[in-house]
User: Fold this.
Amino acid sequence: MTDTAEQGDERSAEEQLQERRAAGYRKATRVLARTGLRASVRERLALLQETAHEVYDLDEPADVYGNRIVATLEERVAALLGTEAAAFFPTGTMAQQVALRCWAARTGNPTVALHPLAHPEVHERNAFREVSGLRTVHVTEEPRLPTAEEIRGFEEPFGALMLELPLRDAGFVLPSWEELTEVVQAARERDAVVHFDGARLWETTVHFGRPLHEIADLADSVYVSFYKSLEGFGGAALAGPKSLVEEAKTWRHRYGGAIFQQFPTALSALVGLERELPRLPDYVRHARVVAAALREGFTEAGLPWARVHPGEPHTHQFQVWLPYDTDVLVEAAVRQAEETGTYLFVGPWAAKGPGLSSIEVTVTAAGLEWTTDDVRAAVADFTARLPERA
Assistant:
């Protein structure tokens, strides 16, 4: 067989697996999360049509370059976060580049201190450097947010400290409230501004034991996302002092973010703030129940090495690590969905080393139906589909 034919077969097998995964999810009667990401266009539009009238007068004219419904959304975000103003952006990548370049101009220092696992470093193709002329430095390499001592002892000056809350790629982890306030104070001592990458800030209130406005008040500026937890179609907001937000709107235009009409996205964001935001604390609390049950289930199954990280989730999302290759775990998960209607591990598994993989687990409204016994039974069924370890 030729190399081309072999590659074609491999692509075909991968495509078939993707189709099985999608079909398994659609037909599953039990999952831990139903997200808009996996819904059809028809389903998403139907939900918006059912709920949109609850959050905005649909007889009002549509937006034009950021007025009307977009301005209403901006005011809503500023009120929730307790900031002077907020600006809507089509993407978080754009919002954060604009925020940090504005701060760089004000501080006179284009260096941004952030974690090497932070979203701009891992998922944005060096956009800070290539597009906005910013330079990044890493205060710590540990899979957690930096400590106050690390901030104070860092050998290079920086104009801004960017903190991703939670730090997704480290396991959706957060510092304690005391640790966070100390880190912010340490940055202030260095005359650095503090920017929160709060794409998932909405669900941090349970862990911190503080309302959103009190959390946001620690920072000089905050970015939030409308689709990662709120089920919006997309979009983001940058919140902070009015002068910064007005400057950011100028740069938003320069970056190509002054879009003619965005009412579907803005409307879905308002729906998310109304419907999903109040539910997030329940998701976080139940994620802790699910995580504990997963850990118990793996122990009962006798797996030689399995981890739920963090042990007690900080948000409604966390990681599961298992000692198998990704293809083995995906096949077991899909077969479980096809044969039982229970899809325990829906997302993609990531290879973390030879015979070691991890997956992100999310708990939303669908997961609230799961009891501890349900989770343990699902784990037992899932692990029974795995090959025995030597």
